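To: structure desk
From: M.T.
Subject: fold request, one chain
Message: Could you run this one when you get a chance? Sequence is below, nothing fancy, just the single chain.
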Amino acid sequence: MPETTTTRCDHDPVIDERTQFLKGEADIMNDRQIRESRAVRRPTTLRVCRLLTLLCGLAPVIACAPDEPPAPPAPTVIAEPVQRRTIPLYTDYVGRTEASKSVEVRARVDGFLERRAFREGSLVAQGDLLFVIDPKPYEARVRQLDAQVQRCEATLAKTERDVDRLAPLFERNAASRLDYDNALSAREEAEADLESAVAAVEQARLELSYTRITAPLTGLAGARKVSIGTLVGSKGASLLTVVQQVDPMWVTFNMTAEEYLEVRRKLSREAPPDDEPVEVGSLINIRLPDGSRYEHSGGIDFTDPAINPRTGTFQVRAEIPNPDRFLLPGQYVRVSLLRDMRVGALLIPEKAKMIEQGGAYVFVVLADGTAERRFVEIGSRYASSIVIEQGLAAGELVVVEGMHKIQHGQQVKVVDEPPDGETSNQPTNGEAS
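Reply: Done. Structure tokens follow.
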């Protein structure tokens, strides 16, 4: 058998030293990782302990906290139901008042103005004395022509006696035909001269009457245009003053062609057999410059037969009573023309309307007491109310006071009167009336 040989390797000292060095480095790195992991876990654990301590301290406080405060009471508002009514429909225009009659008082004869017998701007009756022109020249003229009349009368009497004397002589052939014809012609000439003289006297007396200038109608007398002592008539200033009749008063305004056609169609429309026909386009109401309504109404008495091609409008004139002379010529007024009667119009107080960029809206109180903000389409105005075209139904409750303190979907309490200390003044919505 072969002999087994065992080889023994002795340890190398360099290798042993390197191995010991690497083992030491690994131990150092392990120790460093252990310290870092402990440093990370320590703050987290500390924070958890502190949070548990805080919660334990707040537990009694949370357990003893009071209940939530009760909800505030529902705000109080005043609401009114939407009304359904038959109302007149008016169209507004800007009108101007005019005197129904305006007469210029002028001098009809020449002469010097001697006297003014009225107070300027006062009411004068027809026939009242206004001015006096110096009458002396005209009185002298009348006396002169009266004498001419007497002379013509005397001439006529002589010619009649001549005819009476020659007539029997001519019948007995004691006078010639020529003499008799001359006598007849002389009488006829005398009669004509007398008539001419009488007419001249009448003309002179008429001119004498013109020296007393009277009011041609009852109305307001304007300011005098000339001073006392001025030569008036054809040789001077003839306009003395103006007298205007203010009862009734005229109001003129312009209507467009489209509005005219609308009114004409309504006038020509046949009324139902069971209803009385409604007169449309004749009733006129006016509002004065201060916004107040004039107590008397009137009707249209004239429309211009032609439309102005430049403006597309034509003139309409209404006549309105003015017994108290409350209206004066030249005033600008707002004219309301009745166009139609609207049946079943929905009305709400105008103060219930609110305006924003999205349009007009109101607050409606529902059956469960909730306030609903609802946008509506508004129409024309009627007195202190407005017509609602869309958005509401008859009988719904609309908030008229207290809109400023409620919101959409909020519970409200409807009362008849505002509580003590609250006023009914609402904030303006910025819309012009």
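Reply (cont.): The two ends are 138 Å apart (CA to CA). Let me know if you need anything else for the meeting.
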